[in-house]
């Protein structure tokens, strides 16, 4: 390759750090982390989500108890301002990442549609 | 932003088209597509895979019949040279895409590990 594609990926990474979306996510995370009870709840929620998505990826059905526990935690999490704000910023960054990903994977999408 | 991050993503997309990995995938796809029976089998396999991963994402368990059908198709597909070659090239491109993705998502990974 004439240009090293990894250099461009690293450039994109640096630029991502400078976006409004990333900076706001970073600020929201720091604020959330500074509140111990919010941070503990957030970590618990993350762990449950990881466990359940792991099970789903393995093709295992979730038990009613697991679904209930995830819903209960989601309710709790939705009542903590610091986490609500963080999740809003996650959605903002995800939107940006999806847009970028859409662009980057275009060659492959086109190939498989053709 | 001083630099438009979308410009960089578009640059990455253009560079991706020029990589050995993408060009070889493209060539393998064209060869596979030119063989009608290989292409038909490939499309059938793709469709089944999409249906099953959709079910899994919905948290539904796969029936034994579905798992069997997917295995049978995978066996058939594994015996068609054009598709075997294509799949090898898919693995090559996936490796590259994963590497790039690892770089680009580093800021977010770091934030959530911190
Ligand atoms: Ca504590
Ligand atoms: Ca036919």
From TrEMBL, chains A, B:
Span-the-membrane segments of this chain are none
Q: Which InterPro entries match?
A: Com_YlbF (IPR010368), YheA/YmcA-like_dom_sf (IPR023378)
Identify its protein family: Belongs to the UPF0342 family.
Family annotation (HAMAP family): UPF0342
Q: Which protein is depicted?
A: UPF0342 protein ACFP5Y_06390
């Amino acid at each position: 390759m004439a240009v090293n594609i990894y250099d461009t990926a690293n450039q994109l990474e640096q630029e991502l750090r400078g976006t409004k979306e990333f900076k706001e996510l970073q600020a929201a995370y720091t604020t959330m982390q500074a509140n111990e009870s919010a941070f503990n709840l957030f970590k618990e929620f993350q762990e449950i989500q990881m466990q359940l998505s792991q099970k789903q990826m393995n093709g295992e059905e979730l038990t009613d108890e697991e679904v209930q526990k995830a819903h209960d935690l989601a309710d709790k999490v939705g009542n903590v301002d610091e986490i609500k704000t963080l999740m809003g910023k996650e959605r903002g960054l995800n939107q940006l990442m999806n847009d970028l990903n859409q662009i980057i994977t275009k060659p492959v999408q086109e190939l498989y549609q053709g």
